[in-house]
Records
---
Amino acid sequence: MEGVYIQDFRINGLLISLASLLFLGIILLSYRLFMLGMLPIVFLFFIYILTPIYRSTVSLFIFFLVGTLLFQMVTGYYAEWDISKKMKIMLNRSSLLLIIGGLWLSILLSKQHVFLFTTLPDWKKRIVFPFHSIKLSSFLFFGLVGSATIFIPLLFLDGSSFTKSFVTYGIFFSIINAFLEEFLWRGIMLSSLKSNVSTFFAVFTTSTGFGLLHISIGIPLVMSLLFSLGGLFYAVVVLKTNSIYPAIAFHLIINLGMVFNGWIF
């Protein structure tokens, strides 16, 4: 029995180490400290070689950080272009495909079969919580109402600044960002981790990583960590509905509100 406890301790310690290396890599690469950011990748590579446990997860983290490195290098290249700030933001968000491509390559090399949560929600399903259950339609309605509260500050803004081009930009930005971020974090990362480790670890890692990656677009560290709460909410929505689409819809609404409030410009 003591041997089992020691083994569990070692496994938990390994998972904590893997998550710590992932988070450290995201932070360093987001601040464009590329040489230091390579160190977590190197450590993960050695862990992959030396430890047969959780190799699919280690591979996923390695390819995520390599994709993040490419993402930062490419977006830095865009920054030198003589184009509008709005276009640079759109290119930045579209470049998340580099990270997604890295994750997909890892899954192919690991020969994993991931669910990706791409099925439509079962509207007849009831969402079960510890002390009660609720219809899926009601659950999504309350989530929609909660997300829509981000538009409340608009009541106190001058609506004359909402030009057609600004509204068009807000819609396209929100669609691209919500779809790519959700497919990256909840579609690929959460699905892959959930099939290899505990659901708790999968949710914690993807939610925290989701928040930290916002450092790369200039959001301070503390605020980025607060964004992890949004990642936690989206993860719960995906797991409860068994579908990524409601999370994409909620994420889109939040992004749209942030643009129209002038928080993303």
Note: The chain has one domain: 2-260.
---
Amino acid sequence: MTSTSALPENAGRQCHNVVNPYHSTHYFAPEFGEELAKAGIENRRAAYFAARGAALGAVGPGTITATFYNFHHDLIAQHVPHVWTVTTPEAVLEARLRAADATLRRLLGDAALDSPEMAEAAELALRATEGCARQARPLYAAHADLPVPDAPHMAFWHAATLLREHRGDGHLLALLDAELDGLEALVTHTASGRGMSYQGVMATRGWAPEDWQAAQERLRSRGLLDAEGELTEAGVQLRKDLERHTDRLDRGPYEHLGAEGVARLTELATGFTAAAVSAGAFPAEMFGK
């Protein structure tokens, strides 16, 4: 049942910020590479493009570039659609589920996965997804067509995936409205101190240093970045506006869940995410400036 209780400001964003890492743990895990290799994909970058894009079907590089937004198209084209000559989207989706399951079992332990709190988190997160919308959200819509796993920890992972992609698709609309291309979005996010580090971007997104420098110059010409590569006052305001715009586009699931449900899901997800981080789920060098 939809709740009508008013949400505190930023409650949806705060909930997303602790639910999303629960989904994301598998991308950095050895189990991810192992399971995708069993499906025929040994290259780690190809595995990421295939795993996150498999719900869309055996699509070409243009679709991946459009929906992932901040990767260099040439990097994507090195791996897509070649990945679909060695495996299928169905096999990749199965491998991804196995990787997520194994990762969460290693990071959290069976006791946490089998706990009443995990079942409650799954129920709340799935209820929140009832407030999501498919329109203009291709990654969310594709994942929403997938079945919900039976195990509570995987049902929670599935719901976290839906909530992540729903917000992400909306965020891309906000970036387009702000006239930021994929690399400019990365540069401003890194400069905010909250995004991926420069080293992380260079290692994973396919951009060259000269691309980064050119993006910085474009942002300086708009008054968003200073000579040292830091956000100007206007740049800080732009990042704030982007998040507020994204919040507006992503309010559906959290309004549907209601203030009490959002608060409880945030509490539960905070505990599981903190435990995963403490267990080494994410490489420190990937984040911060």
Note: The longest helix spans residues 251-278.
---
Amino acid sequence: MRTIEHHRSDVTTLVGGISGALEAEILTVSGDALTAHPERYAHRVLASDVLSPSSLPAFDNSQMDGFAVRSADLGAATAGSPVTLPVAARIAAGDSFARHAPGTATPIMTGAAVPEGADAVIPVESADPPVFPAAAAAASVRFGRPVAPGAFVRVAGSDITSGQILLRAGSRLGPAQFGVVAGTGATSVPVRRRPRVLLVSTGHEIRDPGSELQPGQIFDANTVALTAALQSIGCAVTAIPCRSDDAADLLEIVVREAPGIDLVVTVGGVSAGAREVVRDAFEKRGVRFEKVAVQPGGPQGFGLANLPTPVPVVCLPGNPVSALVSFEAFLRPAILSALGVTDPLRELRHGRAAHAFESPASAHQLRRGIVHDDGTLELVGGPSSHLLHSYAESTVLVHVPVGVSTVTARDELDYWRIDG
């Protein structure tokens, strides 16, 4: 059987073929745009490097509410012999640049520009008295110790300088990334077009939630689960279930939709049964069907299908947990890699088993579980691939590698977080 790493590599290579078609789009960055069209901004990936149009901070500013001073004026200050300075006019955030007179203390608010001539800020609570004087009052303030040059000053360009790479191609855009773009004054970013995915869940037995089931029929969980999974990494999904075990019906759907699609993902019909609709439809059209040494999710398919033009097809097994685990192990990293994301795999973390359990030595097992505050990993539900509720209650997928048949309590195991 193929290893999980070998299959992931091949699927990544296949899906990577769509990368060139995911041309750049320009995405406006503003609060109005995000609130008016939030769907445009979820799970986007930068198409190219973005250079900062300005420096952050743009000017030296105060990190604290306090007094701007010239550090040399306080060189002799001690608790027993404090230095007294007259108080100058107050500076607030947004005020024009000002000049600091030597031998004075300038009240300054957080974020306000440090006046020219001052080189440090002393927090107001470190002054005597620890309050700002009334604006019209003639007042003085005492300081009982020296201050180092640069204290509590945010230096211009200390976060980023103008012309420096602000965000690199392949960055996934979230709140901090959009925020720093806006903070530098940029109004747009180039993003990769969303991959257009045709998702086809298959099975004569599947019906839409809310419909009346006949004996032997089941509600279609895979369409909803895989649509949500694909959307969570930035895909635009067209979901059209095939409620038939006839290969001609499946091909009719895929051929009809293929001209506007980057990738076809099917669910179900990949095993070795008598009526495997996906295998029947695609095996003679360039799609390989093989067994991967992973549990759940052993039966897998992938290839460039002639429809009649070549279209990449990834075929997942039909049990709901198998489909979601296969998405995590193979499809998610492949699509993120095609988008240019530099770290497409989930972070591999380490914990210890909370209890003993068995695992098939011939397969890389991915078990559902939760991680406790002490780092121990507790499995949720059994290994069977139909236990979707167990998956819904889980926050991690626990890795048990090939060759391990028994895990004892406190054994170290790797895991992926799947709750974010």
Note: The first helix runs from residue 4 to 16.
